[in-house]
Amino acid sequence: MKRTISLQSLLALCLTLTLTNGCAAQGGSFFGQSPSAQNVSTTANPQDGVAHPALLDPSKATEQAPENFKVKVETTKGDFVISIAREASPNGVDRFYNLVKIGYFKDIAIFRAVNGFMFQFGIHGDPAVSDKWAEANINDDANVGVSNVPGTICFAKTGAPNSRSTQMFINLGNNSFLDDQGFTPFGKVTEGLEVVGKINTEYGENKGDVQGEFKQKGNQYILKKFPNIDLIKSVTIVE
Question: What is the pTM of this model?
Answer without folding.
Answer: 0.85
